[in-house]
Structure prediction request, 90 residues.
Amino acid sequence: MDVFSFGLLLHYCLTAGQHPFGEQYERDANILQRRVNLKHLQHLPEAANLIRGCCEPQGVWRRSMPPRGLRACRSQGLCAATMQLPGVLP
Prediction:
């Protein structure tokens, strides 16, 4: 599983459509400069930590999935919350 994409999707679902790397015109630069914006997840520190690890642009530093990333998702109940969004996950 591509954990970078998973992190983007999870952030999108938990923030009602926000992108962790900003607006469309600034995303590429923010990804290259490692500027991830998780301010919309201040109330969900576990989710912010998981997404920060998934969105690491350097593959060697990125979270692995499975089992660690998926286990973290399950343990925090994040997958259950995401499953309640229609059409997001099967």
